[in-house]
Amino acid sequence: MEATTASTAHKPELAGQTVVLIGGSAGIGLETARRARSDGAEVILTARNADRLEQAALDVGAQSTAAFDATDAAALKRFFDGLPEPIDHVLITGPGPSYVPLLEMTADQVREAVGDHLVLGLEVARNAAPKMRAGGTLLLIGGTGGRRISRALGIASAATAAIPPFTAALALELAPIRVNLIAAGFVDTPLSASYFSSEGLEARRDELRATLPIGRVVGPADVAALAVHIMANSALTGATYDIDGGQQFVA
Length: 251
Known about the structure:
alpha/beta; Rossmann fold; seven-stranded parallel β-sheet; 7 strands
């Protein structure tokens, strides 16, 4: 009797789709671009640094790039208005958290720390939505810092805690475009490294390897895999997805 074998070839999940990476020249944005490309998508990268952006585009074979500051509302509008074709997904990596002690913060610093992610997400949503196909997703990056309060975290707990309900409300506003949030713990990226000295960074990595249930440090490729899954699964919207290796349970 002749045996038959089922095909195990991987079908690209994002074939024929276009992904825009806001902050796509390094870290999570760049790794998501690389993962999206491997799953059949075209990618468009944006970032502030034109030189680094050009190198990232060559690295992943980007369709195009645009160098601008995403917090500049006029520049953001020009970028989306200038896109020639419909797009499917947008990832916003956004600014990093602020760990300044609360009583040392100015009013403007508090507004920036709490509002930056929300304002950026709203401005991207406002400008991207007319260009997006139904069923695509706007994907925000936040953190798990809002799950516990400490003096060391300062305003970061309040800032990250505001993003999940914002995500859910925006998902209702933009439907049938989907909106989701990835809440990350420590991810070993250049942005994370900027908060430490070289000795402090390695000590933090060692601590996480010893304490996290997964026994290793979360990297940008881990987050990228989750991001592409959320893009591909059209049943997901308004939700928050933790990716911290169990950090919030053992910290």
